[in-house]
Amino acid sequence: MLAIGNNSNSGFDLILHIFCYLLLPGWILLAIFHLLGFTFGYYTFHRKPSPNNIKELPGISIIKPLTCTDANLYENLKTFFNLKYPRYEVLFCIQEHNSELIDIIERLRAQYPHVESQLFVSSKKFPSDDETSKVETNEIKNPKIFNMLSAYDKAQYPLFLISDSGLLMHEDTLYDMALCMRDDVGLVHQMPFTCDRKGFAGSVEKVYFGTQHARMYMTINLIGINCVTGMSCLMRKEIIDRVGGLKAFGNYIAEDFYFAAEVTKQGWKIRVAPIPALQNSGDYSISIWLERMIRWFKLRMRLSPLAYIEPLQECFTSAALAGVVTNYLFEWNALVVAACHILLWFLFDYFMLRITQGGPLPFSKFEFAIAWLVRELSAYYIYFKAFTGSSTIRWRGKEYRLGSGTRAVEIFSPPTSSVPTIVVETSSISSSSSSNSILAGTHLLSPSL
Predict the structure, then answer these.
(1) Residue 170 has pLDDT above 90, yes or no
(2) pTM of the model
(3) Catalytic (active-site) positions
(4) Which residues of 214-236 are buried (b: 16+ CB within 10 A; e: fewer)?
(5) Pairing with 138, which of 26, 354, 414, 436 sits 20 to 30 Å away (CA)?
């Protein structure tokens, strides 16, 4: 019996050794990720790209899909009329008629008549009574794609920029992005970040986008994995036209992932812009941020199986594992190892945020520490809600059930008599992209988009 017990303990000990030696490279890999993200961010952010050899910069069509107004919308949109770029146009898209939103846009267009701009409402150029100007569409599940179809078809320049409604853009940003569009580059994207906003919620968002998100975003882009956020993407129109236009991506919620996949599939390169995208929505809070993070993680779960092990790379999880592993293998003090791990992580995150910010932070070191702690601890709540919640997400006022590869099925609610709807009859349109099947039918649009 004693021999049997010793053999059992030896077998268990062997398994623990193998497990620990597998975790140790993962810990080292995390350290490498920190260093790569830190270094790539340092040599990318807030550095002027070298001028292209081309004699004339190409024109750019900026597509702005809008849904509703907020306190910062006017000032955000105003920045797009003051860009230092020789030739560009701004194409505003509103899915449903919104008098307040239309008034804001028309005031800006009247204030800046020298800037080329158009407004599209309900898939039609505004103002227009010509029903033939409405584009025919397939059953597009993605409301953002649906909103941009008319503007994309009317875009007159070889490059187009998709820019979300809540973004503020500095006057030199478009020029810097265009300089990154070398002859072999097909897509230039801005890493999501935030403006300096008041309140603790603004601090938490800035800490998240400038630390954990920035580190992973920059590292993954450095090693060449598809990691593109579509809130601000400059693309060559010929690439998207080759697969049938934006309609080819209409059945996916994560359209940015498939934009990037198509760009690389056609042999083009992808570059990160030197200036991060400055989110400046007037509506922000901790709860809004949490809902957004849960939605993003649900999408990542369907794009890559590696998403399921993301909790292991969080600061406190990896600190605990590092302490246990080094204690078992080398008899180091587990608490000291974990404490040193957390301290180094904290310091790297602080300097990563300073690099992303490109200047002094809008809050104290103490507020950074509290916001950082909230971000780190809330990650486990986000993972829990995404793992245990349903496969549905709410986005742009609609609810969707996610399928494989972020294919989405809209969950329709019976319309009430007081809420009008728009029905767009569609016909079958063939696409040259075999991976994106597009169905004919009738698409019911809710004014809540």
Answers:
(1) yes
(2) 0.84
(3) 256
(4) bbbbbbbbbeeebbbbbbbbbbb
(5) 414
